[in-house]
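re: the backbone from monday

yeah here it is again, tokenized this time
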């Protein structure tokens, strides 16, 4: 098959990766996708790791209805405005056959109140919490749910934007502002932990500007990585929502001073967009790249044989290797993930495929380690080990290969992170003038001063199509110029540099 280099057509390259790695496909249901087993294997690993991380921070799982009464959304118009045009609405509850035996909506089966198919869960969850909270002793409530979200996206793309997508979302309730802010900040750190240690990317962290916060939030904390085409993609945010939803839904409690008070809220979510994030951050001109921490298969073993007898001899020869793989686990250094990842392997003994076809298929799906064995290898106790991220192979003693597998997977994980970090740092520019900004922003990340007014931010966006991704925490600002900190447009005072980029 023809391989289109990333440099030639990056957008088409993504579509080719999704198709040829057999991750997902467009559904017959317009705007929706089918996630295939290998793609869902990545999704399951993401879900399971995040679930463990959040349980380790005191959260528990629950589930809330798919359908939301229209009146609930009407209470929070500002919150809903962002996706109001994307909502799917249920108006009737029954179908029937007409006189021509065609299936139609029964006009007499109209709902008393229209239902919105979940575009987001804040309102239905707040209604539930209202029945649970009476005293400060009932707080905090720390709940995560895994759910499907429905929004009619006009320009869809598999994993990035589809009408229905899978999401993990966390909604918490607190007695004080300090508790809510601590929760929002802590879970922002969890997102960064997951991004750096599992997806193996190096994002920039910081709060969103005032005009780009989540509707109704006091503060929105963002995780902003750089894709390989130097664009940004927001894939995780954490919000301190203050008392806004508490007041709208009249969720009151008696605080420790025996006074009535409104509950403070936080929320955050990540979705199947994380798979887009992964693909666009790492994949190379040999197709898909998946960090070992999230790989559905860590090792593929390919016996090279001509007869059934040779195959059985090779499998017997490999018993010490396969038994060891079944016992070993991958340990990821993480502040919030305390478990280990069980190694997964497959023996590809399909006698209907050539050796080269098997090699190629595993290249496309990016299995981190490939071990090939010929009958002649057994006489010398050798195997051939191929490392996918570097494209290198070596002949090793079987016992040496066994010792090398887990350290090699950890090395591949680290290598992918360092490569991504270097890419971001090498392609982030610090500018002081608007002229230089307009030049650099056409392709790269830019750190620049602005006067922190919405007017200036929107002017820059209108003229360059670049947006403020976040106000980076100071540890992400590696370089500062001496002299006055002033906006590159208005020449008014600036607090510190902010991150600009073009984004998906």
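seq for it, each position gets an aa:
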């Amino acid at each position: 098959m023809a391989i289109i280099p990333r440099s030639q057509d990056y957008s088409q390259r993504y579509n080719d990766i999704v198709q040829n790695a057999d991750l997902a496909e467009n559904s017959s249901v317009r705007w929706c996708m089918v996630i295939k087993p290998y793609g869902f294997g990545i999704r399951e690993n993401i879900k399971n790791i995040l679930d463990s991380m959040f349980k380790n921070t005191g959260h528990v799982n629950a589930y809330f209805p798919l359908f939301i009464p229209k009146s609930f959304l009407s209470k929070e118009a500002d919150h809903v405005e962002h996706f109001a045009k994307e909502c799917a609405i249920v108006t009737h509850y029954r179908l029937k056959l007409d006189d021509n035996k065609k299936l139609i909506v029964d006009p007499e089966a109209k709902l008393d109140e229209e239902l919105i198919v979940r575009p987001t869960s804040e309102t239905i969850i707040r209604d539930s919490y209202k029945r649970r909270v009476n005293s400060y002793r009932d707080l905090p409530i720390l709940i995560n749910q895994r759910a499907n979200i429905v929004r009619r996206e006009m320009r869809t793309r598999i994993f990035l934007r589809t009408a229905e997508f899978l999401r993990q979302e966390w909604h918490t309730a607190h007695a004080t502002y300090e508790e809510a802010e601590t929760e929002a900040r802590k879970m922002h750190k969890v997102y960064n932990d997951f991004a750096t240690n599992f997806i193996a990317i190096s994002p920039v962290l910081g709060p969103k500007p005032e005009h780009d916060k989540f509707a109704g939030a006091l503060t929105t904390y963002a995780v902003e990585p750089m894709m390989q085409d130097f664009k940004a993609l927001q894939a995780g945010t954490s919000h301190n929502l203050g008392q806004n939803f508490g007041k709208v839904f009249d969720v009151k409690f008696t605080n420790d001073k025996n006074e009535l008070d409104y509950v403070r809220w936080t929320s955050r979510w990540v979705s199947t967009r994380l798979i887009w994030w992964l693909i666009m951050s790492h994949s190379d001109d040999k197709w898909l790249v998946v960090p070992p921490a999230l790989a559905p298969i860590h090792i593929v073993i390919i016996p090279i044989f001509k007869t059934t007898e040779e195959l059985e001899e090779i499998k017997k020869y490999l018993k010490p290797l396969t038994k060891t793989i079944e016992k070993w686990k991958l340990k990821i250094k993480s502040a919030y993930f305390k478990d280990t990842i069980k190694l997964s392997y497959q023996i590809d003994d399909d006698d209907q495929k050539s050796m080269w076809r098997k090699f190629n298929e595993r290249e496309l799906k990016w299995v981190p380690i490939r071990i090939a064995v010929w009958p002649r290898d057994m006489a010398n106790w050798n195997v051939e080990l191929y490392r996918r991220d570097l494209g290198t192979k070596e002949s090793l003693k079987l016992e040496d290969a066994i010792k090398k597998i887990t350290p090699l997977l950890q090395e591949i994980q680290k290598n992918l992170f360092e490569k991504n970090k270097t890419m971001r740092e090498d392609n982030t520019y610090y500018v002081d003038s608007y002229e230089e900004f307009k030049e650099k922003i056409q392709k790269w990340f830019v750190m620049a001063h602005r006067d922190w007014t919405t007017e200036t931010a929107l002017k820059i966006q209108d003229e360059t199509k670049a947006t403020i991704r976040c106000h980076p925490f100071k540890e992400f600002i590696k370089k500062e110029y001496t002299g006055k900190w002033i906006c590159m447009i208005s020449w008014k005072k600036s607090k510190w540099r902010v991150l600009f980029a073009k984004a998906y």
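The CA atoms of residues 205 and 223 lie 5 Å apart. The chain has a mean pLDDT of 91.
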